[in-house]
Amino acid sequence: MDYGKTAPAVLEGVGGESNVESLGHCATRLRFILRDASKADRAAVESAPGVITVVESGGQFQVVIGNDVAKAYAAITGISALGGDKARSKDSVASGSAGSAQRGNPLTRLVDVISSIFTPFLWTLAGAGLLKATIVLVTKLGLVAETSQEFTVLNAAGDGVFYFLPVLLAVTAAKRFGSNQWTAMAIAGSLVYPTIGALNEAGDPVSFFGIPMVMAAYASSVIPVILAVYVQSFVERGLDKALPSSIRNFITPMLTILLMVPLTLLTIGPASDWAGQGASNLIGWLFGLSPAIAGAVLGGTWQIMVVFGIHWGLVPMMANDLAVQGHSLLYGPLVAASAAQGAAVLAVMLRTRNKGLKKLAGPAAVSSFLAGITEPAVYGVNLRLKKPFVYACIAGAVGGGIASAGGSASTAYIMPGLLSLSAYLEVGSFALQLIGVGVAIALSFGLTMALGFKDVPEAGTAQDTEAGAGAGDGETGPAAERPAGEAFQVATPVEGKVVALADVPDAAFASGALGDGAAVAPTSGEVHAPIDGTVVSVLPHAFGLRSPEGVEVLVHIGIDTVRLGGEHFTTAVRQGDQVRLGDPLGEVDLAAVEAAGYDTTTMVIVLDAAGTGVVRTTEHSEVGHSTVLLSLSPERELAPAG
What we know:
This protein is of the alpha+beta class.
C-alpha cells in the first residue's frame, strides 16, 4: 500500500489540515479531533486507499487503517504540520516509556535504553567520527597544522556533536521517556553551559544556597543527562496534574528547569565524581602494583567507563602525568581497547544479515580504528548487540595487558586510535604496544566471528537468528515451522470470559473490519503472548505480534483506552523482541481503568485473516491465559514470513 496516496485523500476528506485540531494514532486507527465535524466527508475518507472504515466516537473522527497505521500517520505528518510530541507521547507506537517495564536484569534494561536513545542520530555520530579520523590523518601528514585556524574550524566540525552530546541525548531521551523535548534540551544546555564548565575547571569550592556542589565535566557525557530526563518525565507529569490549564504550558517548563538543573548538579555531579575518583585511585594503585595487570583492567573496562562517564576521573591523572613527567602510562592500553571495538564491529558487518546494520558498521569501524572514536561502534552496534561489546572488552583486556607490560606510554594528549600510535614511540616498548593492539584486534574479531551474536531483524521481518556460529541453520524465529495441514492456534492473552467479537461495543472491531477474532472480558490484569513470534508494535494498551509463518495477531486491551495515554498500563516488551507463547507482554490495572470510565474488554484479532485461513473461536466460555482461543483452519498452507 502506498500511503503517500492515502495521506492527501484522508486530509481532504476530513476537511483539510485547517480543520484538524489534533492528530494521533493508536494500534490500528488514525485519531482526528476536528474543529468542525460537519466539514468531514466520511464516504470520501472510507474510499481512500488503505482505509478500512471510519468510526466517529467520543468526539474523535477515527480512521481505521489496521496494522500499518504508523505508516499512514507518518505519511500525513510528512505532508502537513499535524502530529507532534503530545500526540506521539500518547498515541503513537512507542518503544518504551518512563512507566514501562522491560524484561531482563537492570543492567540489560539500562543497556537497551542507552542503545535505543542513540539510535536516531547514529549516522550523524558515525559521520562525525569519520570526519575526526580524517582530521587526525591530515594533521599527521602535515597537511594542516594543529595551531592553524583551519584546524580550529575543522576540529569543531568533527568534535561538535561529541562535545554537545548531552543536548542530542536530551532530545531522544525525552522521546523515550515521554518528556518535553525542549525542556530536556534546556536542562542539557545548562549542564554544558560555559560558566558551569568553568566552575569545574577552576577547582574552587562551589555551593548552591549553602549546599556544597561537587562539579563534574558534562561535555560528551551520557548517563547524567539520561537520568536527568528520566526524572524530568515524572516531574512534568506531576506538575501537569497539579497546575491549572491556564498556566500549565509555561509554568511547568519553568518549574521543571528550576528544579532539575540544580538537582542534577547536586546529585549526578557528585555521583560521577566519586565514581571517577574511585576508578582513578584503583587504576593508579594497580599501575604501581603491576603495569600488566593495570593495563588489562583498564583495557577491559575503558569502554564500560566511557558509557557511564566514569572515565573522566582518569583525565586529570593523565593531564597531570603529561605535565609532570612528560608521559602517561594510563594511555598504554587504550589503543587496544578502542581497536578491539573496531574489530568487533567489523566482524558484525561481515556476519549480520541486517543491511542497515552493515551500512552503519563500516564507518563505525573506521572511526574506531583510526581515531579511537568508538561511540558509533559502541552505541550503534556492539552495545546494542551486547555480545560483541563483551568480546571487545575481553580482547581489550588481553591486548591492554600486553601493551602495558612493556611500560608503553603516550607523550601527548591524544585520541587512542591507530593514527596516534606515534605518540607511543618514545616511552616503553613500542613493539609490545603494537603486539598488544594486534592481539586485541585479532581476538575481538575472532570471538565475534566464531561465537556470534543475536542478530537484529530487518524491519518488517520475523528474523531472529544467531549470527556467527550456527548461522544459516534455517531457523527464523522462536518456533520451528509448523507442519503442513496443522491448524494454527492463537491462545488467549488474558484470563476471563469469552465475548463474541460482534458483541464488542466498538464498530471497527465488532464489524470484523480489522479482521476475525474474539474478545475476552478480563478478570486478571496480566497480559501474555498469545503466539510465538516477533513483537512488531507496542503501545501501552495494544500489542502487535507476527508468527514465523507470517500470521499477524493484534491484542487490544480495552475500548478507547488510548486516551489514557499509557496511565494504568505497563509494558514488558519492546518492538522487535522475540516472545514465546505465554511470555508476559505487560500488565494493566483493570480496576483503575474501569474507574476512569473505560471498558476493559480485550480484543484478539487475526489481521488479514482472509489470507491465512478460517478463524474459529473456542467453545469454552471461561479461559485462562495461554488457553487456545482461536484456531485458523489452513485452507492453504501458511507460508513462512520474510
